[in-house]
């Protein structure tokens, strides 16, 4: 009887230790480090070259106003344009434009390849077509970046988009 209890106890200990998370204190420190770096960066939205009916181009700029290079995770930003909803787009009636793009769940922490480095006193920018990922049927929208969770970036400015 005691032998069965010992075997059961050992088996339970092995199973429970295997279920434990593998995240280390170093991983948590690394996550906090990149997020605090990204919080120092500035996000700016500007209308792109919106020529042609239904075009909804937007320029997304990340600026580093500091004296040292800083990084942010490109997940949930237009620097990884194929995945994620990271804009809040509202029409004049206060209705949100429907998102029709792909969503993804990621394993944390992000690998080194997921980061973009912004040199000191420099900017990185990209252009994205909002019409590719959102249902845009009105003529005037207010656009705000909202994907700062994983990327670490702050929201930035609101932008008016005229179609």
Task: Summarize the helices and strands and which ones pair or pack.
Elements lengths: L1 H17 L6 H14 L3 E6 L9 E8 L5 E4 L13 E5 L23 E4 L3 E8 L10 E6 L2 H4 L6 E5 L1
Antiparallel strand pairs: 1-2, 2-6, 3-5, 4-7, 7-8
Q: Can you tell me about this structure?
A:
By secondary structure, the chain is an alpha+beta fold. It has a single domain, classed as Immunoglobulin-like, CATH 2.60.40. The chain is built from three helices and eight strands; from the N terminus they run ααβββββββαβ. The protein has helices at residues 2-18, 25-38, 148-151, and strands at residues 42-47, 57-64, 70-73, 87-91, 115-118, 122-129, 140-145, 158-162. The chain has a three-stranded antiparallel sheet, with no helix packed on it. A three-stranded antiparallel sheet has the order 4-7-8, with no helix packed on it. Strands 3-5 form a two-stranded antiparallel ribbon.
């Amino acid at each position: 009887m005691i032998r069965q209890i010992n075997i059961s106890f050992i088996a339970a200990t092995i199973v429970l230790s295997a279920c434990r998370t593998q995240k280390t204190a170093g991983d948590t420190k690394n996550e906090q480090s990149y997020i605090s770096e990204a919080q120092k960066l500035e996000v700016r939205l500007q209308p792109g070259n919106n020529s042609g009916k239904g075009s909804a181009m937007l320029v997304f700029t990340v600026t580093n106003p500091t004296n040292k290079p800083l990084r942010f995770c490109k997940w949930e930003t237009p620097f990884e344009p194929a995945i994620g909803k990271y804009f809040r787009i509202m029409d004049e009636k206060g209705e949100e434009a429907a998102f029709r793009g792909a969503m993804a769940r990621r394993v944390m922490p992000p690998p080194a390849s997921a980061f973009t480095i912004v040199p000191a006193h420099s900017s990185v920018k990209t252009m994205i077509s909002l019409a590719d990922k959102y249902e845009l049927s009105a003529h005037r929208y207010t656009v705000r970046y909202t994907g700062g969770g994983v990327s670490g970036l702050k929201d930035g400015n609101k932008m008016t988009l005229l179609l």
